[in-house]
Amino acid sequence: MIEYNFTIVVTTFLFTMTMLPSVYLRYLPFRTVLGDEVRKTLLHGYATIFFCENALILLLIFSNILSYTLETYKHIYFFAGYAPYFALNLILIRPYLAQHAFILGIQQILATTIATCAAILTLLFVSVDHFFDYVYLFFLIYLALYLLTFPLVLPFFRQIFLRFSSISTERFWLYIAPLPFLVFFHEIFHSVGDKVLVLDFFISRLILAGAAIFIALVAWRGLEHILQQAATTERSLTLLRRMNSFRAYTRSLQDKQARLAIVRHDLRHNAKMLADLIARGEDEAAIKLIQSLNYQIDATSVEHFAENSMVDSALAVYVQQAREKNIPIEVKIDTPSTFAAEVDFALLLSNLLENAIQAEEREAEAARDIRVRARTAGDSIFLSIENRCSSPLKLSPKGLPTRRIDAGHGYGTRSVEIFAEKYGAEFFTEHTDGYFRFFMQLPLGQDFKNQS
């Protein structure tokens, strides 16, 4: 009797252990968006559920409310075992209902496929009639196989949301979330009896695994397509904004040229006036005339910030915008006169400056400040942009302000990520001392990815 009770305890413990890898896979996609407190709460919650499920199952079996059979464990696994963990995720990891449902479906298909393989391996050692007598062996093989699949499946579960976090995909998930369940529920219907059906349904389980792989690939490719479309749209809008800004800058240059033409036209007349004033000894009037001429000439001058014409034009546009909005801006730029990434670098710089200006407009006027630095060292350009930011920021796993929390800050996550991926650049950010700082290292003189 003691040996029988001990077998029940060990079997139940191993059974609840088999659910933990699945719990981890359902948690992993959301890990990067969770704060430390939420992670800690989830960990404590998972541990509590694990021990409570152990205790409850043993209590129900020893009280003869549940029978100690394979069918009992199947019912618990398919209909109850995962539910508390899933409910805890829904409560603490929000608002991702459709994403939770999709991950649950894919994970359950994966677990069922692994269980099929584990059952077949178990049947190599025991007969079908004595399968439940050695069900602990099945659980051990199942756990070992599940852990062996981690190197293959972890990249998918880790990246499925993180890789596409910079775009809005809520509607996509609403459409695709039911697909894994439509496939999986068919298998549940045929799997909840007290018999070992793995050999009878082996082919259908292979088809189930193939369907899961197909659905996962469809989801990934669909998100890749959305990402590409979003990147194209954002680039088009960025170029349109740049064109509008450069149009305004061109108009200001034309205005300065018109003023310069007037100054040149009046130069001989002003020179005569100056000579007459000096001849008559009217020094004070002559000084005022010289000051007036200096002011007119200064008003026609064009300020230059960089040797590279593309970078210089981008800086000129947004420095002028910042000054018009009473935002102090300090620029020190040292870039090569020409380099392979100059066009995209100028566009990125324009995007960062435009959004820094937008962020500064929300700061108190006395506290506004933007600093732009770039220098060439070795085979790299090092860029830093910092601006005042008194409000708290939530950064994405890649170090950029998240759109959901920080829509007003404006650092274009997609443009930065696309540029970094295309040119092999490295970037990071920090938010300290009331400043938000963006740093980037751009390598020069290497082959770049061909991206539109």
Question: Could you give the topology of this structure?
Answer:
Layout: H1 2-17, H2 20-27, H3 36-62, H4 70-81, H5 83-92, H6 97-123, H7 135-162, H8 170-176, H9 178-189, H10 202-279, H11 283-300, H12 309-324, E1 329-333, H13 342-360, E2 370-377, E3 380-388, H14 403-406, H15 413-423, E4 426-432, E5 435-443
Parallel strand pairs: 1-2
Antiparallel strand pairs: 2-3, 3-5, 4-5
Task: Please sum up the structure shown.
The chain is α+β, with helices and mostly antiparallel strands and 452 residues long. It has helices spanning 2-17, 20-27, 36-62, 70-81, 83-92, 97-123, 135-162, 170-176, 178-189, 202-279, 283-300, 309-324, 342-360, 403-406, 413-423, and strands spanning 329-333, 370-377, 380-388, 426-432, 435-443. The protein has two domains: 1-237, no CATH class; 309-443, 2-Layer Sandwich (Heat Shock Protein 90), CATH 3.30.565.10.
Please characterize this protein's 3D structure.
It is built from 15 helices and 5 strands. The longest helix is centred in the middle third of the chain and has 78 residues, at 202-279. It is elongated. Helix 6 packs parallel to helix 9 and helix 9 (178-189) runs antiparallel to helix 10 (202-279). A hairpin with a 2-residue loop joins strand 4 and strand 5 (435-443). The chain has a 5-stranded mixed β-sheet with strand order 1-2-3-5-4, with helices on one face. It folds into 2 domains: 1-237, no CATH class; 309-443, Histidine kinase-like ATPase, C-terminal domain (Heat Shock Protein 90, 2-Layer Sandwich). It is 65% helix and 8% strand. The termini are far apart. By secondary structure, it is of the alpha+beta class.
